[in-house]
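Q: I'm writing up a methods section and want to include an example of the input and output format. Could you take the sequence below and give the corresponding predicted structure tokens, formatted cleanly so I can copy it straight into the document?
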Amino acid sequence: MGIRETLNEKPMIGRTIAFLAIAAAIYFAFRAGSNKAPDSLERRSQMVTIRDTLTGDEWEMNRGRFERLLLTQQGQIDPNGGIPSKFSDGKPVGVLVDKNDWEETVERINAMKAHYGADGSGSDG
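A: Here is the clean output for your methods example:
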């Protein structure tokens, strides 16, 4: 007996398969829209406000570009430092205005640098 004959004789099997397929599609659609991973395209594309800790001036930048500037700095990121500021002659004093976001970002990037040996200490794995 083939699949077609089985589905003709027992339509509930076909309906169950269709229901499961639709439920899976809905689940994946909602899951994709709520991606909060730090490296998600949605998160990297958002604009963040940066403050110069010396002058208090603020500017906006794409989060992906901001994090790239942190990643390319030599060694571990100093939480009291930041990215080069155009308002302080390029001194590394540009930090995120949202303090919690800044601390989480520094912690995550320093962990990445330590894991991949970008802090000068090397990596075992």
